[in-house]
Write a structure and sequence with these properties.
The chain is built from ten helices and six strands. It is of the alpha/beta class. It has two domains: 3-205, Alpha-lytic protease prodomain-like (Up-down Bundle); 211-365, Alpha-Beta Plaits (2-Layer Sandwich). The strands form two sheets. A three-stranded mixed sheet has the order 1-2-3, covered by helices on one side. Helix 10 links the parallel strand 5 and strand 6. Helix 2 packs antiparallel against helix 3, helix 2 packs antiparallel against helix 5 (144-173) and helix 3 runs parallel beside helix 5.
Length: 369
């Protein structure tokens, strides 16, 4: 198990111990005062302990060595554990909402005592510190499960704060507002859990990579000697600090196989050293703009492209002068209403401008910035 995983597990164990201790105190006080809000708060603490256990299990499984069925490892199980934690948060929020509505419909007398105020106030302070600490460590360790646990703890702190407010209002006015506060807070909890699930699923499905990262990687690839430009960067995040990528580069057509091999290795070493991203594939676009005929054809295509605002770039330009064939790729952004119709219109215009050549255009997706 790597150093990162051990740190995640230590933080999770701290959360388990803290939440179990808080839950025990709150159940005692909740039963003593007949407070639904305090009892639900205790249930929340138990769920936090469970979410920390899920985080430990997910992190441990994520460190399982790659095998034949999972050659890229098991790192994405961390995201699955985040989904489970989000589900727990949604369940707690739904349970709290149901119980709060019941208390609103059928009110029951509460009996707050001084010890109740002390326990809730201490719990509030502890949960705020725990939530901020766990979330901070989760961001630093890039663990979405830990971040989720930290957010859950902070929402628990909101519940404790609302309960404290309800107690103060009861002491000063003899009016019990805690069921209404609990109902309102449960809606925020539901929203938090749903957001966590959505974000984790987005990563699992393959969301767009961080624009800052992709722009920097392509810029650094383009700076490598012999590279004219970089295109088609694709990043696959397998979790647990295992990120694979592929990129296509444009080079002069006169480069030898040996020179291209050296260039590819330089790109791989440069990007891994700076970003910890493994470039496992470097595709090559060879272009010769010193040829007058090819340069003229390229200029014709470039001029047509300027009239299409949704075409992000044109690359991979290749001309076979013997067979009179032209092939290249275009990237059309996803804001285009009908990308295929837009693509066909562009192809028709290029073909009309260059009728003596067979035109083959590949429609690329706007995968990374």
């Amino acid at each position: 198990m790597n150093k990162r995983s051990r740190k995640i597990i230590r933080v999770s164990i701290l959360g388990i111990v803290t939440n179990l201790a808080l839950a025990g105190f709150k159940i005692f006080v909740g039963l003593l005062s007949n407070s639904i809000a305090i009892i639900l708060d205790a249930v929340n603490n138990f769920s936090d302990s469970l979410s920390s256990i899920v985080t430990i299990i997910g992190t441990t499984f994520a460190n399982k060595a790659p095998d034949k069925n999972h050659p890229m490892g098991h790192g994405r199980s961390e995201y699955l554990s985040t989904v489970i934690i989000g589900g727990l948060i949604v369940y707690i929020g739904l349970t709290a909402l149901i119980e709060s509505v019941k208390k609103i419909i059928t009110p029951e007398p509460v009996d707050y005592q001084n010890v109740t105020v002390i326990v809730v106030a201490v719990a509030l302070a502890v949960k705020i510190m725990l939530g901020l600490y766990v979330r901070h460590r989760g961001k630093k360790l890039e663990s979405s499960a830990l971040v989720g646990s930290g957010i859950d703890a902070l929402y628990d702190a909101i519940i404790s704060a609302a309960t404290l407010v309800a107690i103060v209002v009861f002491f000063t006015t003899n009016i019990s507002i805690e069921p209404y506060l609990a109902a309102a807070i449960s809606l925020f909890i539901l929203r938090s859990g749903a957001k966590l699930i959505k974000e984790a699923f987005s990563i699992i499905l393959g969301e767009r990579a961080d624009p800052k990262l992709t722009k920097h990687i392509k810029a650094d690839v383009a700076k490598v000697e012999g590279v004219n430009d970089a295109f088609d960067l694709v990043i696959h995040d397998y979790g647990n600090d295992f990120v694979l990528a592929s990129v296509n580069v444009e080079v002069d057509h006169k480069l030898t196989a040996s020179q291209i091999d050296d260039l590819s290795r330089t790109i791989q070493k440069t990007i891994y050293k700076k970003y910890r991203v493994i470039i496992n594939s470097v595709g090559i676009y060879a272009i010769d703009l010193n040829d007058e005929t090819i340069e003229k054809l390229w200029r014709t295509v470039a001029e047509i492209r300027e009239r299409y605002e949704h075409i992000i770039n044109v690359h991979g330009f290749h001309v076979d002068l013997n067979d009179r064939e032209i092939s290249f790729d275009i990237v059309v952004d996803f804001t285009t209403k009908d990308r295929k119709a837009y693509y066909r219109q562009f192809c028709q215009e290029v073909q009309a401008a260059i009728p003596d050549y067979a035109i083959s255009v590949t429609l690329d997706a706007d995968i990374t910035d």
